[in-house]
Amino acid sequence: xxxxTCVTLFTLFVTAVRGNIDKDKVLCLxxxxxxxxxxxxxxxxxxxxxxxNCSTDVRYGSGPWNLDKTASGKSIxxxxxxxxxxxxxxxxxxxxxxGVTYYYTPVSNSISSxxxxxxxxxxxxxxxxxxxxxxxxxxxxxxxxxLTAEALRGEYTAVLHVGxxxxxxxxxxxxxxxSDCSKATQVGDAFMQMxxxxxxxxxxxxxxxxxxxxxxxxxxxxxxxSMPQSEWPIPLHQMWYSIDIGNVHFLSYSSETFFTSxxxxxxxxxxxxxxxxxxxxxxxxxxxxxxxxGHRPMYCSNNDGxxxxxxxxxxxxxxxxxxxxxxxxxxxxxxxxSYERLWPMFKGVVLAKNYSNPTAPVQxxxxxxxxxHGIDDFNNSNIADWSAFHIGxxxxxxxxxxxxxxxxxxxxxxxxxxDGQVLDSIWIxxxxxxxxxxxxxTVDIMEKIDESIKKEQIITQANSKPKTxxxxxxxxxxxxxFNNVSTRIALGAGFGGLFFVFFATVCIVHRxxxxxxxxxxxxETLDYxxxxxxxxxxxxKDTDDFESEVSDGTSKLLERD
Length: 561
Hints:
With 561 residues, this protein is α+β, with helices and mostly antiparallel strands. It contains nine helices and 28 strands.
């Protein structure tokens, strides 16, 4: 073989290898990297997406140039209502050391992204974790860059996203309007890539919202995220979980079980939460604080007619007594695109107008991170006593922050994304963690609670009754105008006469038309721009001429988020 032939073959080989590498770079490049805790904070889940079916590995270690450990995981093909990156990868990093900063890089077919890093929480319970919390964050929200910058300050143990992602994960993105930073055809892909700088460095803990329901499948939510105490993809019957972080027991629940078509998992979630909180109360010595978070609020002062504005609220009926009975300290909610803080209360009755040893859960609504649907306003003319503080327009593009200072004190604030202004803040002190006890309430308070319960029962029963067409006269109405017998006879005779006149008129018109020549004419003149006109002969008067406006073929569907 000549030297020239060898050179040619070598060149072809290099070109082929380079072509395969370039192809792998496109098809196997890990994108949308994000983190979540495993069953404990000593485990970390790494997830990413690729366009092709590629290998699933994570290299990690104590420095960006010292990735001396490798963990392998699995990938799944996810094409359900998904035109974007259809292979999602998951790797579990186990038995990580407390307080250590780890560097890692996702690897698919030898193609990697990163390196990224995260810091493990300290060991034990005697430290002060901080958390960023928000709900209702859209793809095009101007909050994302500033939320990312805030998260990268390194202060947060986790970010809690309380439902409603991207608007919507399962929608397709109009590429003509896509920003330069999001080339994917799927809204979910673009959103996950946009928040990667945040989610690849801080554990991103979630709960589902109404925009994730997706025909009762929650498909994108269940595949794109992995949460503790659950298989992956997350099964429909396991879309709730809990995890201990420092001195806090977090409980993530799904408010959406009440709004699926058949409510299949309402009871199973209830029983799971009941058992979880029972165990949590046995562990209050180590984790005194219990914080629950789920998307839809139990109460709110907004004027949009949502479930939280109703006396027979489904979410309220499902969780309020349970959280009270087991002593949940704080409930974080979203869905309403505004901010509201409630006094400690039960069944709509305020138990105290302070947060010193509250005798009921403290409820907070932080759904103003940046929804494409704008702000949800308040019914300021009818604000209930239990609403301690609420803010509408100024709260748009804002987030919550919790600092668990110690076993007895917790600090909360709502912060504007635009300028960092603190919109609201409170200290909650609790020296008596544990189940709340109705027996300790005053007689006056209990009477108000009983009255509220009766009112709720009456409305619930009324709403549950089937609609009827009963026309019987209620007692005491016999003398009313329309129930008077003579009046009804007169009205009947009058309507009968009108009907006879109408019928006679129709018959006369019909006979007249029969006498006219029935010349069926073709449409000869069509103005496609705006209108149809009928054609008439010269000098002829056509009483059937008409003019129909057809230029506006649009329709609008108002969608409630």
